[in-house]
Design goal:
Elements lengths: L2 E5 H11 L4 E4 L6 H7 L6 E4 L3 H13 L4 E6 H17 L5 E7 L13 H7 L3 E2 L4 H18 L3 E6 H5 L1 E5 L16 H4 L3 H22 L6 E3 L5 E6 L1 H9 L4 E5 L1 E3 L3 H8 L4 E5 L5 H8 L18 H9 L25 H10 L3 E3 L24 H12 L2 H4 L2 E3 L4
Length: 411
């Protein structure tokens, strides 16, 4: 078996290939974009962009209902757009496995907010894996298909910017040769979510979460790594890497399935320590559920809730120690992001600036029109919002001011 250096996104695409995926659908958005771009390298996968995340998920749902394994990818804000089909898909379940990859963006490197998609897993009642490196990104992708078909559920795979874009060693394996031939199977009571059918399916949803939690207690993706035996840490995802660097002597419970959590495994682990930390980025998602079990932990009262964690930030927050720094690099002038040379948006924004227009913006690279010297964007909320925002503003201002309002839309 070959070993190669892959980013997390490349590894997820490879995992889809090795899992026998036939259809991949996505809407681009950093840090998730390269997953579909790499899926196109495998001719066995029908990989295509959709006009938005909702449609991307609906294409994946159709492939799953047809009996094929399907991969759907998007960034965290895209799940907001895809939420409508997602929540009902949780009730219908799947035929072929369906994995929805969501790439979160702690520190807002390229996003308008910093939401934590683990909350969507709990809200939609869809189980979620979270890998800690590229090898796990590949393996958890494959495992998500297997678990989803075993428990009749769509599956989330959560990545973050660091996991998606960092590279590590991955062992490649072959694609299966016995992929079932997709076919139409009528099962209206399962797939038509009229209220009478949905009421029955809701019981199945709740039951599968209980069964998955019990199942995960003994699965190797949730594992205990023994250290000196004095301090315990519960962690997941990229935070695990930081914990191993900052607290090499700690006993670590590394969680791979972050929803539903393995309650019994957590209780058994926590019983051994007077000092127990939960180290996680963004929301106190694991921490709140562990506290609800009656277990006292140290978490967000010390660790930041905003931005990425780093070894230095963890060291400073938990132990009051500054990270050792030795930076001999020369002073470099700041280089803020800007539009590409020759970008046609430049001329448009220059004229809007000269006209002193009030510009309602839309998500895309041209949001950089906000920055000097163009300085020609006044609002930016979400994709497609600019025309609605401009309409709402125009309804409440004077006729003279209305002439100054301009909406820009389209990436």
């Amino acid at each position: 078996m070959d070993k190669v250096l892959l980013s997390g996104n490349e590894a997820i695409a490879r995992g889809a290939y090795e899992a026998g995926v036939l259809v991949a659908s996505a809407y681009p958005g950093t840090p998730s974009t390269e997953i579909l771009e790499n899926a196109t390298r495998y001719p066995e996968i029908d990989a295509s962009w959709a006009p938005n995340e909702k449609v991307a998920l609906e294409v994946g749902i159709g492939a799953s209902f047809g009996g094929a394994r399907a991969l759907v990818t998007m960034k965290h804000v895209g799940v907001n757009v895809a939420a409508d089909p997602l929540f009902t898909l949780s009730y219908t379940g799947v035929r072929g496995g369906l994995v929805l990859v969501v790439a979160d963006d702690p520190e807002l490197h390229s996003s308008q907010n910093e939401q934590d998609s683990r909350n969507y897993a709990k809200f939609s009642k869809v189980p979620m894996f979270e890998p800690a490196d590229s090898q796990e990104a590949k393996e958890f992708t494959k495992l998500a298909f297997e678990a989803g078909e075993q428990f009749d559920t769509p599956m989330f795979l959560r990545s973050t910017t660091r996991i998606s874009h960092a590279k590590s060693i991955v062992t490649l394996e072959d694609r299966p040769t016995d992929i079932p031939q997709p076919s139409l199977v009528r099962d209206a009571a399962k797939l038509v979510m009229l209220p009478a059918n949905a009421r029955k399916r809701h019981y199945d949803v709740e039951d599968r979460l209980i069964r998955m939690a019990e199942w995960s207690n003994a699965q190797p993706f949730n594992r205990i790594e023994k250290g000196a035996g004095q301090v315990g840490v519960i962690t997941a995802g990229v935070s695990y890497q930081y914990v191993k660097e900052v607290m090499p002597d700690a006993d670590v419970l590394k969680i791979g399935l972050v929803h539903p959590l393995p309650e019994q495994l957590i209780r058994d682990f926590a019983a051994n320590y007077e000092t127990l930390y939960v180290v996680e980025e963004l929301d106190p998602y694991i921490e709140e559920q562990v506290r609800a079990m009656g277990i006292n932990v140290i978490g967000k009262e010390k660790l930041p809730i905003c931005g990425e964690l780093t070894p230095g930030r963890i060291r400073k927050a938990l132990f009051g120690l500054d990270a050792p720094v030795e930076d001999n690099s020369p002073e470099l002038p700041p280089r803020p992001p800007n539009m590409c040379p020759g970008c046609p948006h430049r001329g448009v924004f220059m004229e809007l600036n000269r006209a002193k227009a009030y510009v309602t913006g839309d998500i895309g690279c041209y949001t950089l029109g906000f920055l000097p010297p163009l300085s020609a964007m006044d609002t930016c909320v979400c994709m497609g919002a600019s025309i609605g925002n401009a309409t709402g503003i125009s309804k409440v201002i004077s006729e003279e001011e209305q002439r100054k309002v301009v909406a820009v839309i389209g990436d």
